Amino acid sequence: MGGNNHSERKNILITGGAGFIGSHLCDALIKDANVICIDNFITSSVANIDHLLREPSFEFINHDITQPLHLERYPELERFKVAYNGIQEIYHLACPISKRHFNDFKIATVLTNSIGVKNVLDVAVAHQSKVLYASSSVLYGDRRDEPGLVKETDECRLNHLTTRGAYDEGKRFSEAILQTYADVYGLDVKISRIFRTYGTRMKIFDGNLIPDMILNALDGNDIIISGDEETHTSLANVKDVVDGLLRLMSSPIDITLVNLGSDKQVRLVGIAQKILEITGSESRVRFEPHVPNYIDAGLPDISRAKDLLGWVPLVQIDQGLREMIEYANSNKNLVSF
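RESULT FIELD:
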Protein backbone atom coordinates (compact mmCIF):
# COMPACT_ATOMS: atom_id res chain seq x y z
CA MET A 1 0.00 0.00 0.00
CA GLY A 2 1.27 3.46 -0.80
CA GLY A 3 0.73 6.90 0.63
CA ASN A 4 2.64 9.10 3.07
CA ASN A 5 0.28 8.67 6.01
CA HIS A 6 2.13 6.39 8.42
CA SER A 7 -1.10 5.05 9.90
CA GLU A 8 -2.15 3.73 6.47
CA ARG A 9 0.94 1.54 6.18
CA LYS A 10 1.79 -1.81 7.68
CA ASN A 11 4.16 -1.75 10.62
CA ILE A 12 6.97 -4.20 9.93
CA LEU A 13 9.70 -5.16 12.38
CA ILE A 14 13.06 -6.41 11.09
CA THR A 15 15.62 -7.76 13.54
CA GLY A 16 19.15 -7.75 12.20
CA GLY A 17 17.99 -5.04 9.83
CA ALA A 18 21.42 -3.43 9.54
CA GLY A 19 22.99 -6.66 8.35
CA PHE A 20 23.81 -7.90 4.86
CA ILE A 21 20.43 -9.38 3.94
CA GLY A 22 18.44 -7.35 6.47
CA SER A 23 19.44 -3.98 5.05
CA HIS A 24 18.39 -5.01 1.54
CA LEU A 25 15.10 -6.18 3.02
CA CYS A 26 14.64 -2.76 4.66
CA ASP A 27 15.18 -1.14 1.25
CA ALA A 28 12.49 -3.30 -0.33
CA LEU A 29 9.90 -2.80 2.41
CA ILE A 30 10.30 0.93 3.02
CA LYS A 31 8.50 1.68 -0.24
CA ASP A 32 5.14 0.60 1.15
CA ALA A 33 5.48 0.08 4.91
CA ASN A 34 6.70 1.56 8.16
CA VAL A 35 9.94 -0.26 8.89
CA ILE A 36 11.26 -0.68 12.43
CA CYS A 37 14.86 -1.85 12.21
CA ILE A 38 16.32 -3.57 15.27
CA ASP A 39 20.07 -4.15 15.50
CA ASN A 40 22.98 -3.73 17.91
CA PHE A 41 25.77 -3.67 15.29
CA ILE A 42 27.58 -6.62 16.86
CA THR A 43 28.44 -7.93 13.39
CA SER A 44 26.52 -5.51 11.15
CA SER A 45 27.15 -1.92 10.09
CA VAL A 46 25.40 1.43 10.33
CA ALA A 47 26.69 2.13 6.81
CA ASN A 48 24.19 -0.41 5.50
CA ILE A 49 21.22 1.67 6.66
CA ASP A 50 22.67 5.17 6.73
CA HIS A 51 20.71 6.12 3.61
CA LEU A 52 17.45 5.15 5.37
CA LEU A 53 17.88 7.05 8.62
CA ARG A 54 16.24 10.20 7.24
CA GLU A 55 13.26 8.34 5.81
CA PRO A 56 10.05 9.23 7.72
CA SER A 57 8.80 5.64 7.40
CA PHE A 58 11.99 4.17 8.83
CA GLU A 59 13.07 3.97 12.45
CA PHE A 60 16.20 2.38 13.86
CA ILE A 61 16.35 1.03 17.41
CA ASN A 62 19.66 -0.03 18.89
CA HIS A 63 18.68 -3.10 20.88
CA ASP A 64 20.13 -6.49 21.81
CA ILE A 65 17.40 -8.98 20.95
CA THR A 66 18.52 -11.28 23.76
CA GLN A 67 16.86 -8.70 26.01
CA PRO A 68 13.04 -8.31 26.09
CA LEU A 69 11.74 -5.90 23.46
CA HIS A 70 9.09 -3.44 24.65
CA LEU A 71 8.15 -1.31 21.66
CA GLU A 72 5.79 0.85 23.68
CA ARG A 73 8.79 2.28 25.55
CA TYR A 74 10.17 4.00 22.43
CA PRO A 75 8.60 7.43 21.91
CA GLU A 76 10.11 7.61 18.42
CA LEU A 77 7.63 4.93 17.35
CA GLU A 78 4.57 6.97 18.30
CA ARG A 79 4.14 8.22 14.74
CA PHE A 80 3.60 4.62 13.65
CA LYS A 81 0.82 4.21 16.27
CA VAL A 82 2.13 0.79 17.24
CA ALA A 83 -0.07 0.71 20.36
CA TYR A 84 -3.19 0.98 18.18
CA ASN A 85 -2.16 -0.45 14.81
CA GLY A 86 0.16 -3.16 16.11
CA ILE A 87 2.92 -4.97 14.22
CA GLN A 88 1.68 -6.84 11.18
CA GLU A 89 4.89 -8.63 10.16
CA ILE A 90 8.20 -9.57 11.79
CA TYR A 91 11.26 -10.65 9.82
CA HIS A 92 13.68 -12.23 12.28
CA LEU A 93 17.18 -12.15 10.80
CA ALA A 94 19.19 -11.23 13.89
CA CYS A 95 22.10 -13.57 14.56
CA PRO A 96 25.79 -12.77 14.96
CA ILE A 97 27.50 -13.90 11.76
CA SER A 98 31.26 -13.56 11.52
CA LYS A 99 33.41 -16.25 9.96
CA ARG A 100 36.69 -14.67 10.94
CA HIS A 101 35.59 -13.78 14.49
CA PHE A 102 33.10 -16.57 15.16
CA ASN A 103 34.68 -17.54 18.50
CA ASP A 104 34.28 -13.99 19.81
CA PHE A 105 30.49 -14.19 19.52
CA LYS A 106 29.67 -17.75 20.59
CA ILE A 107 27.68 -16.77 23.67
CA ALA A 108 25.83 -14.02 21.80
CA THR A 109 25.05 -16.52 19.05
CA VAL A 110 23.65 -19.24 21.28
CA LEU A 111 21.57 -16.72 23.25
CA THR A 112 20.24 -15.08 20.09
CA ASN A 113 19.22 -18.50 18.80
CA SER A 114 17.28 -19.27 21.97
CA ILE A 115 16.30 -16.35 24.19
CA GLY A 116 16.36 -13.94 21.24
CA VAL A 117 13.87 -16.04 19.29
CA LYS A 118 11.64 -16.25 22.36
CA ASN A 119 11.71 -12.45 22.76
CA VAL A 120 10.74 -11.95 19.11
CA LEU A 121 7.90 -14.44 19.40
CA ASP A 122 6.60 -12.72 22.52
CA VAL A 123 6.19 -9.55 20.44
CA ALA A 124 4.47 -11.61 17.75
CA VAL A 125 2.03 -13.11 20.25
CA ALA A 126 1.20 -9.68 21.66
CA HIS A 127 0.35 -8.34 18.20
CA GLN A 128 -0.62 -11.59 16.43
CA SER A 129 2.06 -10.80 13.88
CA LYS A 130 3.16 -12.99 11.00
CA VAL A 131 6.75 -14.10 11.61
CA LEU A 132 9.40 -15.04 9.07
CA TYR A 133 12.61 -16.60 10.36
CA ALA A 134 15.86 -16.66 8.41
CA SER A 135 17.19 -20.15 9.00
CA SER A 136 20.12 -21.81 7.27
CA SER A 137 21.10 -24.62 4.94
CA VAL A 138 23.55 -25.85 7.60
CA LEU A 139 20.66 -27.78 9.15
CA TYR A 140 20.94 -30.39 6.41
CA GLY A 141 24.45 -31.28 7.51
CA ASP A 142 27.28 -32.39 5.26
CA ARG A 143 25.97 -33.83 1.97
CA ARG A 144 29.21 -34.08 0.01
CA ASP A 145 28.87 -37.83 -0.44
CA GLU A 146 25.21 -37.77 -1.48
CA PRO A 147 24.06 -36.90 -5.01
CA GLY A 148 20.84 -35.04 -5.65
CA LEU A 149 19.21 -31.87 -4.37
CA VAL A 150 18.35 -31.22 -0.72
CA LYS A 151 14.60 -31.11 -0.03
CA GLU A 152 12.80 -29.47 2.89
CA THR A 153 11.55 -32.92 3.90
CA ASP A 154 15.10 -34.30 4.18
CA GLU A 155 16.42 -35.14 7.60
CA CYS A 156 18.25 -32.41 9.50
CA ARG A 157 21.37 -33.96 10.94
CA LEU A 158 24.04 -32.12 12.86
CA ASN A 159 26.79 -32.83 15.32
CA HIS A 160 25.67 -30.33 17.92
CA LEU A 161 28.92 -30.59 19.92
CA THR A 162 31.22 -29.09 17.31
CA THR A 163 32.79 -25.68 17.77
CA ARG A 164 30.03 -24.28 15.51
CA GLY A 165 27.17 -25.75 17.51
CA ALA A 166 26.09 -22.33 18.77
CA TYR A 167 25.12 -21.41 15.22
CA ASP A 168 24.34 -24.73 13.54
CA GLU A 169 22.34 -26.38 16.31
CA GLY A 170 21.08 -22.94 17.33
CA LYS A 171 19.31 -22.56 13.99
CA ARG A 172 17.65 -25.95 14.37
CA PHE A 173 16.52 -25.17 17.93
CA SER A 174 15.17 -21.81 16.74
CA GLU A 175 12.97 -23.58 14.20
CA ALA A 176 11.63 -25.81 16.97
CA ILE A 177 10.75 -22.78 19.11
CA LEU A 178 8.96 -21.14 16.18
CA GLN A 179 6.92 -24.24 15.41
CA THR A 180 6.00 -24.62 19.07
CA TYR A 181 4.71 -21.04 19.26
CA ALA A 182 2.80 -21.60 16.03
CA ASP A 183 1.16 -24.70 17.52
CA VAL A 184 0.32 -23.13 20.88
CA TYR A 185 -0.59 -19.56 19.88
CA GLY A 186 -1.79 -20.04 16.31
CA LEU A 187 0.89 -17.80 14.85
CA ASP A 188 1.52 -17.71 11.11
CA VAL A 189 5.19 -18.72 11.10
CA LYS A 190 7.42 -18.89 8.03
CA ILE A 191 10.88 -20.49 7.90
CA SER A 192 13.33 -19.90 5.06
CA ARG A 193 16.39 -22.11 4.90
CA ILE A 194 18.83 -19.85 3.09
CA PHE A 195 21.70 -21.30 1.10
CA ARG A 196 24.94 -19.53 0.19
CA THR A 197 24.14 -15.92 -0.64
CA TYR A 198 26.36 -13.16 -1.98
CA GLY A 199 25.97 -9.52 -2.96
CA THR A 200 26.65 -5.92 -2.06
CA ARG A 201 26.92 -5.04 1.65
CA MET A 202 28.38 -8.45 2.40
CA LYS A 203 31.21 -7.96 4.88
CA ILE A 204 34.39 -7.75 2.86
CA PHE A 205 37.00 -8.32 5.56
CA ASP A 206 35.42 -11.22 7.40
CA GLY A 207 36.66 -14.35 5.70
CA ASN A 208 33.66 -14.77 3.39
CA LEU A 209 34.37 -16.69 0.21
CA ILE A 210 33.34 -14.31 -2.58
CA PRO A 211 34.54 -11.07 -0.93
CA ASP A 212 37.91 -12.69 -0.17
CA MET A 213 38.27 -13.79 -3.80
CA ILE A 214 37.46 -10.29 -5.01
CA LEU A 215 39.78 -8.52 -2.57
CA ASN A 216 42.67 -10.80 -3.43
CA ALA A 217 42.09 -10.20 -7.14
CA LEU A 218 41.95 -6.43 -6.66
CA ASP A 219 45.13 -6.48 -4.56
CA GLY A 220 47.02 -8.85 -6.84
CA ASN A 221 47.20 -11.62 -4.25
CA ASP A 222 46.55 -15.32 -4.78
CA ILE A 223 42.89 -16.36 -4.82
CA ILE A 224 42.66 -19.23 -2.36
CA ILE A 225 40.07 -21.99 -2.78
CA SER A 226 39.43 -24.53 -0.05
CA GLY A 227 39.29 -27.80 -1.98
CA ASP A 228 40.35 -28.61 -5.52
CA GLU A 229 39.41 -27.81 -9.12
CA GLU A 230 36.18 -29.79 -8.80
CA THR A 231 35.00 -28.08 -5.61
CA HIS A 232 31.60 -26.55 -6.27
CA THR A 233 28.85 -24.63 -4.56
CA SER A 234 25.66 -22.72 -5.34
CA LEU A 235 25.38 -18.94 -5.24
CA ALA A 236 22.20 -16.92 -4.88
CA ASN A 237 22.26 -13.15 -5.14
CA VAL A 238 20.91 -11.20 -2.18
CA LYS A 239 18.34 -9.48 -4.44
CA ASP A 240 16.82 -12.85 -5.29
CA VAL A 241 16.84 -13.99 -1.66
CA VAL A 242 15.04 -10.83 -0.54
CA ASP A 243 12.45 -11.38 -3.25
CA GLY A 244 11.97 -14.91 -1.92
CA LEU A 245 11.54 -13.65 1.65
CA LEU A 246 8.89 -11.15 0.56
CA ARG A 247 6.99 -13.82 -1.35
CA LEU A 248 7.18 -16.25 1.56
CA MET A 249 5.84 -13.66 4.00
CA SER A 250 2.91 -12.99 1.67
CA SER A 251 2.06 -16.66 1.30
CA PRO A 252 -0.94 -18.40 2.98
CA ILE A 253 -0.65 -19.72 6.52
CA ASP A 254 -0.29 -23.32 5.38
CA ILE A 255 3.04 -22.55 3.68
CA THR A 256 5.72 -22.72 6.37
CA LEU A 257 9.11 -23.99 5.21
CA VAL A 258 10.99 -23.32 1.96
CA ASN A 259 14.54 -23.50 0.68
CA LEU A 260 15.89 -20.27 -0.80
CA GLY A 261 19.01 -20.53 -2.88
CA SER A 262 20.34 -21.40 -6.28
CA ASP A 263 19.99 -24.95 -7.54
CA LYS A 264 22.67 -24.37 -10.16
CA GLN A 265 26.05 -25.91 -9.41
CA VAL A 266 29.07 -23.70 -10.04
CA ARG A 267 32.76 -24.62 -9.75
CA LEU A 268 34.66 -22.28 -7.46
CA VAL A 269 37.57 -22.15 -9.88
CA GLY A 270 35.12 -20.92 -12.52
CA ILE A 271 33.97 -18.13 -10.19
CA ALA A 272 37.59 -17.19 -9.53
CA GLN A 273 38.27 -17.03 -13.26
CA LYS A 274 35.25 -14.76 -13.81
CA ILE A 275 36.52 -12.44 -11.08
CA LEU A 276 39.98 -12.34 -12.65
CA GLU A 277 38.44 -11.58 -16.03
CA ILE A 278 36.22 -8.75 -14.73
CA THR A 279 38.96 -7.14 -12.63
CA GLY A 280 41.74 -7.68 -15.15
CA SER A 281 43.83 -9.10 -12.33
CA GLU A 282 46.88 -11.28 -12.86
CA SER A 283 46.43 -13.08 -9.54
CA ARG A 284 46.90 -16.86 -9.41
CA VAL A 285 44.37 -19.40 -8.09
CA ARG A 286 45.70 -21.60 -5.29
CA PHE A 287 44.04 -24.60 -3.63
CA GLU A 288 44.17 -25.49 0.06
CA PRO A 289 42.52 -28.20 2.22
CA HIS A 290 39.03 -27.52 3.56
CA VAL A 291 38.84 -25.63 6.85
CA PRO A 292 37.96 -27.65 10.01
CA ASN A 293 34.25 -28.46 10.46
CA TYR A 294 33.55 -27.52 6.84
CA ILE A 295 29.96 -28.37 5.91
CA ASP A 296 28.67 -28.67 2.38
CA ALA A 297 24.87 -28.58 2.55
CA GLY A 298 24.66 -29.55 -1.10
CA LEU A 299 22.40 -27.89 -3.63
CA PRO A 300 18.86 -26.89 -2.69
CA ASP A 301 15.75 -28.35 -4.21
CA ILE A 302 13.75 -25.16 -4.81
CA SER A 303 10.71 -26.75 -6.40
CA ARG A 304 8.57 -25.83 -3.39
CA ALA A 305 9.56 -22.15 -3.71
CA LYS A 306 8.88 -22.30 -7.46
CA ASP A 307 5.52 -24.03 -7.15
CA LEU A 308 4.14 -22.29 -4.05
CA LEU A 309 5.73 -18.83 -4.30
CA GLY A 310 6.38 -18.46 -8.01
CA TRP A 311 10.00 -17.75 -7.08
CA VAL A 312 13.14 -18.44 -9.06
CA PRO A 313 16.58 -16.81 -8.75
CA LEU A 314 17.05 -14.41 -11.66
CA VAL A 315 20.30 -12.48 -11.12
CA GLN A 316 23.05 -13.85 -13.34
CA ILE A 317 26.45 -14.62 -11.78
CA ASP A 318 28.28 -12.16 -14.07
CA GLN A 319 25.97 -9.31 -13.10
CA GLY A 320 26.15 -10.12 -9.40
CA LEU A 321 29.94 -10.37 -9.42
CA ARG A 322 30.31 -7.05 -11.25
CA GLU A 323 28.15 -5.34 -8.63
CA MET A 324 30.14 -6.94 -5.81
CA ILE A 325 33.47 -6.00 -7.36
CA GLU A 326 32.35 -2.38 -7.69
CA TYR A 327 31.14 -2.42 -4.07
CA ALA A 328 34.35 -3.99 -2.76
CA ASN A 329 36.52 -1.61 -4.75
CA SER A 330 34.63 1.38 -3.31
CA ASN A 331 34.72 0.15 0.29
CA LYS A 332 37.95 -1.82 0.75
CA ASN A 333 39.92 1.19 1.92
CA LEU A 334 37.29 2.43 4.37
CA VAL A 335 37.42 -0.24 7.08
CA SER A 336 39.46 -3.37 7.52
CA PHE A 337 39.85 -5.73 10.49
